[in-house]
Each structure stands twice: as C-alpha cells, then as structure tokens.
Amino acid sequence: MLEMRPDCERCGADLPADEGGAFICSFECTFCAACADALDERCPNCGGELLDRPARVGKALANNPASTERRFKG
Question: Whole-prediction pTM value?
C-alpha cells in the first residue's frame, strides 16, 4: 500500500492524499507537479520515472490514513 507522503521532497509543497497533483517513483519518492516537470519526470534520488500518484479518498483514506512524516529537508 502506498504511504501517500504529505509533501514534495524538493520544495515542501503540501500534497494531500485526497487530491491530485502528486508524482511518485517506484520507491514512492514524492514530488509536486511543478517539481516533477522541472525534473523532466525523473526522480533525482533513483533515476526512476515519476508518474501521477492516485488519490485516496473517502473510506479508503479514513481506514488507511496517509503518512504524516514530511520528507522536505529545506
């Protein structure tokens, strides 16, 4: 199950689990749309492809909450 990380690792922007706009690699490194675009959709950590992260909504989110651990190191 995806962690649904709460922020962009590059700029710190909030990325709520129940909204679109987040991009992830196969290791779940997470970036906002603007940063993913600036990175040419390539993860700077592993070189993997950045793809749209699916949203988690309703009961799925209530029963499986998103991570609260922020990754931005600013």
Answer: 0.93
